[in-house]
Design goal:
Chain B: This is DNA replication complex GINS protein PSF3. Chain B: Keywords: DNA replication, Nucleus. The complex is a heterotrimer of chains A (about 200), B (about 210) and C (about 575). Chain B is mainly α and about 210 residues long. Chain B has 8 helices and 3 strands. In chain C, about 50% of the residues lie in helices and about 15% in strands. With about 575 residues, chain C is of the alpha/beta class. Classes of the chains: A mainly alpha (about 200), B mainly alpha (about 210), C alpha/beta (about 575). Chains A and C meet through strand 1, strand 3 and strand 4 of A and helix 2, strand 3 and helix 19 of C.
Chain lengths: ~200, ~210, ~575
């Protein structure tokens, strides 16, 4: 093992640091970093196996501390890597609640293929659960709605960007155009407010 | 916030990445790579080297290879603790993870003071933390004074405080834009204005 | 057609429907739309509010929303243009117009269903009778080709009827023809043509008289407030908005002070009724509207007295405060009032309480002596909490400043929204910022007036004055600010001018809009001596543009504010000079 990489685990730590630095959004999945960590794990493992087998044959305990250190490093790498994936999955779950079932393209690009899969499955599970949750009422409950207790059935909203036509439950078509102001049923526009297309004015 | 760090806790990983000064007790074969000043392949006894916490915590406290030396920062704080004047210490400058780091080092401290120090420090400072949480917006300048846990506590305090005020003023049930979306929009706007530079046409004209 | 019974024919008719509210870019309109929104919210009626500026904006806004809505409400816009002609709406769309602009377009007035004007026909002045301006389609028959040309100039063009007449015509003609000799027929035709021409010239005269002056009717906000009152849904906030609406009309000189005074009485009765209705009048924190005599001094509650005096058009021009002598006179006045300079120079709110209480009476007492009798006027103040006390005029100036605070990343629409937010009591900080902006604006106006008068930049073209700002200006490139500046300058110029005719001459002020597009903004201001706010510039601009063959953008609903190409300006002014002499 070369001297530059003397302490091990630095690469894996970098991954987490990157993730932590952008605490709000998801940075692009660091394919390269993850591969390098995996390689490091593999290298450590192979070296340890080689030395452990030589210990088995010779019984020389002088390398034990080194074996020990390497093993700790290997565990460390593993922990960092798993934490990296876990944290990302947590953020992906949050995306579903904040952005709704469709996430913006540039965020989607930051995800790797399995993560996209994960998002879709999570979204499906959530939808399925929401269907069951309100079964007694027939329709199911949209759990992403009404995150705060509603005070009124209708709210005053201001349109922040050109959205186009928006259809209400009763078939009424509303043209949401930037800088227009509307009075609409709260339940139906809450998600648009959450997505920043409308602004609730109170 | 995590007071009981789990395996996936990023914060705990950050803490355990910190380095601790250790003295080498015996000759350790082929571990010279840990010592930047070493000449041979092996680690010589008597040298002091910095080892990451994640390794040290795998070792027994009284292991034969290394002796952990407790950082000075805790000794300095000790005096302040005795004088009950901890609120003015810039903990964040001393160590960004003052409490958690200290917690890991407790077993290695032969005098058994670290445990008491971090407990006392927190006890004395938490009241002050509560006070400054009540007035938000003044955080920027005193950022260095708080360590990681304290910063988080402070953030939580400010947040709760605003929520409480909102509730009192009955403005709590306004639907807000989701934080993630807002962040995303800001980023997009930044990107866009970077692209366009300042060549934006003056759209201020009466074109309603 | 006019709708007089707003409660039954307008509001009840709309309950449960979705409605599109198109709001013009002025304070009266904003206030009216706020009141309307409050009403619609009570009844859970879905609505959409779109702010617009000018006719292009109106057409665009309607174009975007057409198809989705069946009811369109136009607030302070659209009354003076033929809505059906302009927007080409589908048959089932109904327009309600509440517009303070006058004269109303005759086609809107005589529309039988699609266009409804909210208001009382009896209050309108000299609307031409139907027969005098619309002709029966039978008369068109003979001189089809001739009338075709003329039709284009006519306000009314019933194209559908014209076509069917043509068919009828050809069927009837053979039957009539043999009975008349060629000569007789010819004579008859000439006679008919003459009668027709006579009628047309008469119609043109009537139409010209009707549309010659542009002026303003009753405040829309007040009209809508009365609807709220009749629906028993009025409250303090709505009333305050109505007051702000009518105050704007007064302060911007849209209505005569006489008309304003007439309305005051009615508003006062609303105020006392609503004050008695609310029970919490004892607590200081409740909002309270009170009527009082106040001073025509800009924002004086938020400024030092000296500044406010200097920056107020009326006081400043009467005392000529931009001159050294004027300054002396101001000091004399303050001395006689017994107001120490130390106090006069600090913000009103930090003045001694005793002085503050006596300030009004001190000024009033000396008003005659210093030739500023009109400085006193009746107005309303709103107070809530212990510290907030605003005069209606404060609101008007603050909102004006907000509406024209367009910046690079702040579109006019944003400003409109901000202004409408500032009317809510929850957004006090917006109003505060608006007041600060207004101070900047008025200070800038005063400085501009001072330097322009000193440099003698107001020129006379014989029958009118003109004043040309050479460069784009952060404040004056907007219609209202330019209007305020122009009024100040005209008054100031008249006050210093020795010419006897000066008070009878109007002023035209112009300021470049956008250097890159080479457009400039032009406003026409009525003469100082003229008390009636009727403004003939709309028509005059139109004719001058025709004569000088310049393209004029009469897009604003205020016809006396126009845009034109910078390079055409001289030619246009020349034509105007010829026209007005």
């Amino acid at each position: 093992m070369s001297r530059e990489n003397k302490l091990f685990g630095d690469k894996a730590f970098e991954l987490l640091k990157d993730l932590e630095r952008s605490s709000q959004t998801i940075p692009a999945f660091d394919d390269d970093g993850v591969r390098q960590v995996l390689e490091e794990i593999k290298a450590i493992f192979e070296e340890n196996v080689a030395q452990a087998s030589s210990y088995n044959s010779s019984g020389d305990r002088s390398l034990w501390p080194l074996l020990n250190y390497r093993h700790a490093a290997l565990q460390r790498n593993k922990r960092c890597l798993l934490a990296y994936l876990y944290e990302r999955s947590k953020r992906i779950k949050a995306l579903r609640w904040e952005f709704g079932p469709i996430i913006p393209g540039d965020i989607k690009q930051a995800l790797c293929e399995p993560e996209v899969q994960f998002f879709n499955n999570y979204s499906k599970s959530l939808a399925a659960y929401m269907c069951i949750a309100g079964c007694s009422q027939g329709q199911g409950i949209d759990l992403t709605n009404n995150l705060r207790p509603p005070k009124s059935l209708y709210i005053e909203v201001r349109c922040m960007e050109d959205y186009g036509k928006f259809e209400l439950d009763d078939g009424e078509l509303i043209h949401l155009k930037k800088n227009s102001q509307h009075y609409l049923p709260r339940a139906q526009v809450e998600s648009l407010v959450r997505q920043g297309i409308l602004q609730h004015i109170a | 916030m995590n007071f009981f760090p789990n395996y996936y806790s990023i914060e705990d990983i950050f803490v355990t990445q910190e380095k601790v000064e250790c003295k080498v007790n015996t000759k350790l074969q082929r571990m010279g790579f840990l010592d930047a000043g070493a000449e041979g392949d092996d680690l010589e006894p008597g040298r002091s080297i910095n080892l990451p916490l994640w390794y040290i915590k795998e070792l027994k406290v009284n292991n034969a290879y290394f002796t952990v030396s407790v950082p000075d920062i805790y000794k300095n704080v000790h005096k302040a603790v005795c004088e009950a004047e901890t609120t003015h210490i810039e903990l964040g400058r001393l160590h960004p993870y003052f409490y958690e780091f200290g917690r890991y080092l407790t077993p290695y401290d032969r005098n058994h003071v670290i445990g008491r120090i971090i407990f006392e420090t927190m006890r004395q400072r938490v009241r002050h933390l509560l006070d400054i949480s009540k007035n938000d917006g003044q955080m920027a300048k005193s950022e260095l004074r708080l360590d990681n846990i304290e910063t988080k506590l402070h953030e939580a305090g400010v947040r709760t405080n605003t929520q409480y005020i909102n509730w009192l003023q009955m403005t709590g049930n306004k639907i807000l834009i989701s934080e993630l979306v807002e962040e995303h929009q800001k980023k997009r706007k930044r990107d866009r204005s970077d692209d366009e530079g300042d060549s934006l046409p003056s759209s201020k004209r009466v074109t309603l | 057609m006019f709708i007089q019974d707003l409660k039954n024919d307008f509001y009840r008719h709309l309950v449960g429907k979705r409605i599109l509210i198109i709001v013009n870019y002025d304070i009266d309109a904003i206030c009216a739309s706020k009141i309307l929104q409050a009403l619609f919210q009570y009844d859970h009626m879905l609505y959409t509010v779109v702010p617009i500026m000018g006719i292009t904006g109106l057409r665009r806004a309607y174009g975007e929303h057409q198809g989705d809505v069946k009811y369109v409400l136009l607030v302070n816009c659209g009354g003076c243009v033929d809505i059906v002609e302009l927007l080409q709406p589908a048959e089932d769309v109904t327009f309600f117009i509440c517009d303070a602009h006058r004269p109303l377009d005759v086609c809107n007035i005589y529309s039988d269903r699609q266009v409804c004007i909210l208001g009382d026909a009896a209050l309108e002045e000299n609307i031409p009778a139907f027969e005098t301006i619309f002709h029966d389609s039978d008369e068109e028959d003979d001189d089809q080709d001739q009338s075709d040309e003329e039709d284009e100039e006519e306000v009314h063009n019933d194209s559908g009827a014209g076509d069917s007449d043509g068919d009828e015509d050809s069927a009837q003609r053979p039957a009539v023809r043999p009975k008349l000799t060629r000569l007789e027929r010819h004579e008859q035709r000439i006679l008919r043509q003459r009668a027709r021409r006579q009628w047309e010239s008469e119609r043109d005269r009537i139409m010209f008289e009707y549309t010659q002056f542009s002026y303003y009717g009753r405040s829309t906000a007040l009209l809508i407030f009365e609807l709220a009152w009749k629906l028993s849904k009025d409250n303090m906030d709505l009333l305050w908005w109505a007051i702000v609406g009518i105050s704007e009309q007064l302060l911007l000189g849209k209505i005569e002070s006489g008309a304003y005074t007439l309305e005051l009485e009615q508003i006062q009765s609303h105020v006392s009724r609503l004050t008695n209705k609310t029970n919490d009048q004892n607590t200081m924190s409740a909002s309270k509207i009170s009527f009082e005599n106040d001073l025509h001094l800009v924002l004086y509650r938020h400024w030092p007295v000296t500044d406010s005096m200097r920056y107020s058009r009326y006081a400043s021009c009467q005392l000529k405060l931009w001159t050294l002598r004027g300054e002396k006179r101001l000091h004399e006045l303050l001395l006689e009032m017994g107001l120490p300079l130390v106090h006069a120079r600090q913000t009103y709110s930090s003045m001694d309480l005793v002085l503050r209480k006596e300030f009004y009476s001190m000024v009033e007492r000396l008003a005659e002596k210093y030739d500023i009798p009109d400085i006193v006027y009746g107005t309303f103040t709103l107070s809530y909490g212990y510290r907030s006390r605003y005069a209606a005029a404060d609101y008007v100036y603050a909102l004006l400043a907000i509406m024209e605070s367009v910046k690079k990343h702040k579109t006019p629409e944003d400003c409109f929204m901000e202004a409408s937010d500032a009317l809510n009591r929850q957004h006090k900080q917006l109003l505060g910022a608006g007041i600060d902006n207004a101070k900047l604006l008025h200070a800038a106006i005063f400085r501009q007036v001072q330097s322009s008068l000193e440099a003698r930049q107001v020129h006379s073209a014989g029958s009118f004055f003109y004043y040309v700002l050479q460069e784009e200006h952060a404040f004056f490139s907007y219609p209202y600010a330019l209007g305020l500046l122009a009024k100040f300058i005209l008054r100031g110029h008249v006050a210093t001018s020795r010419a006897r005719a000066a008070p009878d001459l109007p002023l035209i002020a112009t300021c470049p809009l956008d250097a890159t597009q080479g457009m400039c903004l032009l406003v026409g201001i009525a003469p100082v001596r003229e008390d009636s706010p009727k403004n003939f510039f709309g028509k005059a601009f139109e004719q001058a543009a025709q004569k000088s063959k310049t393209t004029l953008l009469q897009d604003f609903f205020e016809p006396s504010v126009v845009q034109l190409r910078q390079s055409d300006l001289t030619r246009f002014l020349d034509a105007l000079t010829v026209l007005l002499t």
